[in-house]
UniProtKB/TrEMBL annotation:
Native species: Actinomadura nitritigenes
Transmembrane segments: 53-78, 85-111, 131-150, 176-197, 209-242, 254-275
Disordered: region residues: 292-320
Protein name: ATP-binding cassette domain-containing protein
Compartments it resides in: Cell membrane
Domain ABC transporter: 327-574
């Protein structure tokens, strides 16, 4: 009797672990995964129970079918805002269960029943004891896969998406690709578990995979703790055991026990959300080994170590007018409904120089950055970086092409440490790719250590190495701006767009920030900054563009602009 409940607990815990990878790590709340388990269960029962297929082959097909289904549904649902994802997956879940119940070949509303005599590795699975090892093995397998994905550079990207998908994309990650990938992988895993679950039940029915199962699995994930897989196992086993304990130990009648279990799920969920929202077991930062300094690999050419080589003195710098044009924007326009946020913007950024965009609030400066970086697609116009067209490229590819940005509102990934924030920006970490993650060899962990070392050097560069292990949401505003600069630098992009790097930052941090930006410029990177503080602009910029009502209406040195009577009256006079 108890072994039977243990089988069930292990399988439901495996479902909770898979769903936790999607919900806890990637922040994608899907109600459809219980239905995917149903598709897995139906597939296995249909093939093995009704058509005599080997059970193992049926399980393999169940994984394949649910993975493909996950990709298809993910393509439709994941383009939507997250609040719609829940509703969309709920609709899919109802649709899937409804469709399964309409096929006579699948037993209609009663489903496929009476499945027995399934065989796995030469053993017939008849008694609850026979199912114990397969259930435990599936839980171990699902846990191993989810842990490998979650506690790796790949999982770090997932957490980045959970915290702020736009900021993560601005670090060069194909966030949509990651979302589809993790949706499909977790669909396949739940399909596998569903195949086992239906085998253990001896049936695949619409009622077994409906909304109550989805809610039970969510309760396990939330009570156990987001992004804590061991917590999901513990919660999965404990919550599943509530009903049998009520029945067997407290002699509650079976229908009442089921009801009490549902009520207890609700009470537990409420309690956890009120008292300990992170769940019983909290999320832990990924274990990252940062090599000691002597073992650290060489910094990239423009890396922080390059600063130890003699820097050109300002007097040696190429005059602004003679520097090469790295980025050129022509005729960029954008309207939002009735608002013209950008109007025919022409802009040139020259190598190793700082260009400032100034102008009143709402002039379109941030929109100009959005248009250059592909965050917003322009209605008209072109942007070329070293001669290659950027308009139409995905934002993450634009970063990889060499154009990175910071955000006016900083947008650090709050629950990640400073080191993780900066590591995410370091390009080419092979552990961010699933294929490399499961390949044999130690290349992935070595490369991960190198990425950590590179991120650490950028943190040192901005004077924040001491905060490497601090979660980003524990930083002061000035510190978070410095980490966001380190993050932009770590992308290795040649051109940096810095949105108000000094605003809201106290005086001591402003000096540090100015020194950092000047150092970056002196190393040959190209900087464009939006800034309201004219002292900052005066001390940093080689060239200044004045924007008003979406247009660049004047450009030159800051002194030339402030010397204009019209601009002095319209903007500078008020500074
Ligand atoms: N996604 C959007 N949808 C609608 N309107 C927008 C959008 N983004 C910007 N705008 C509008 O475009 C105009 C320019 O805004 P933008 O944020 O680019 O100005 P800004 O010069 O950066 O201002 P600030 O100095 O206050 O940051 C504003 O009127 C703003 O409300």
């Amino acid at each position: 009797m108890w072994i039977n409940y243990l089988d069930q607990a292990l399988l439901l815990a495996a479902l909770a672990v898979s769903v936790n990878l999607l919900v806890g790590y990637a922040g994608q709340v899907s109600v459809a995964h219980a239905a995917f388990a149903g598709v897995g269960g139906y597939t296995a029962c249909f093939l093995a129970g009704l058509h005599g297929w080997p059970y193992l082959a049926s399980l393999a097909v169940a994984v394949l079918v649910t993975t493909v289904l996950g990709v298809l549904i993910g393509l439709i649902a994941l383009g939507l805002a997250e609040e719609f994802l829940i509703l969309m997956t709920l609709a899919f879940s109802l649709g899937i269960i409804g469709v399964l119940a309409t096929f006579d070949a699948l037993g209609g509303v009663t489903g496929i029943t009476g499945v027995d005599g399934l065989r796995l590795f030469g053993r017939t699975l008849d008694t609850p004891a026979d199912w114990l090892i397969p259930s435990a093995v599936v839980l171990a397998l699902v846990f191993a896969v989810c842990r490998r994905l979650g506690e790796s550079p790949y999982g770090q990207v997932l957490k980045g998406i959970r915290e702020d998908a736009v900021a993560t994309r601005a670090l060069g990650k194909n966030t949509f690709g990651y979302k589809i990938g993790i949706f499909a992988i977790t669909s396949g895993l739940t399909g596998l578990v569903g195949g086992l679950y239906s085998g253990w039940l001896g049936q695949a029915t619409p009622s077994a995979y409906g909304f109550p199962l989805a809610m039970a699995v969510f309760a396990m994930v939330i009570v156990g703790g987001n992004a804590n897989l061991a917590g999901s196992i513990a919660a999965g086993v404990v919550l599943t055991m509530i009903e049998p304990v009520l029945r067997q130990v407290l002699a509650v009648q079976s229908t009442q026990a089921a009801l009490v279990q549902v009520v207890l799920y609700g009470v537990l969920l409420l309690l956890v959300m009120l008292v300990r929202p992170q769940g019983l077991f909290r999320e832990r930062p990924r274990k990252i080994a940062v090599p000691a300094a002597p073992e650290a690999p060489a910094a990239p050419a423009s890396g922080p170590r390059a600063r130890t080589s003699p820097r050109p003195r300002p007097a040696d710098r190429t005059p602004y007018a003679e520097a090469d044009i790295v980025l050129r924007a022509e005729g960029l326009s954008k309207r939002f409904g009735g608002i013209t946020a950008a109007k025919n913007i022409d802009l040139e950024l020259r190598r190793g120089t700082v260009t400032a965009l100034v102008g009143p609030n709402g002039a379109g400066k941030t929109t100009a950055f959005d248009l250059l970086t592909g965050t917003v697609v322009p209605d008209t116009g072109s942007v070329t970086l070293n001669g290659s067209e950027l308009v139409g490229m995905r934002p993450d590819l634009i970063v990889r092409a060499g154009l990175a940005r910071t955000f006016q509102d900083v947008r650090l990934l709050n629950r990640l440490t400073c080191l993780e924030n900066v590591m995410l920006a370091v390009p080419g970490n092979p552990g961010e790719r699933i294929g490399r993650l499961f390949a044999p060899g130690r290349g992935v962990s070595r490369a991960d250590r190198e990425a950590a070392a590179e991120a650490m050097r950028w943190l040192e560069f901005v004077g924040m190495a001491g905060q490497a292990a601090t979660p980003a949401d524990a930083l002061s505003y000035g510190q978070s701006k410095l980490v966001s600069l380190a993050r932009a630098l770590a992308t290795r992009a040649d051109v940096l767009l810095l949105d108000e790097p000094a605003s809201g930052v106290d005086a001591a941090w402003v000096e540090t920030m100015l020194a950092m930006v000047a150092a970056v410029r002196d190393e040959g990177r190209t900087v464009c900054l939006v800034e309201h503080d004219l002292d900052v602009v005066r001390r940093l910029s080689d060239h200044t563009c004045f924007m008003e009502l979406g247009e660049i209406t004047a450009s030159g040195t800051l002194d030339e602009l402030t010397g204009s009577a019209r601009l002095a009256e319209a903007y500078f006079g008020a500074q």
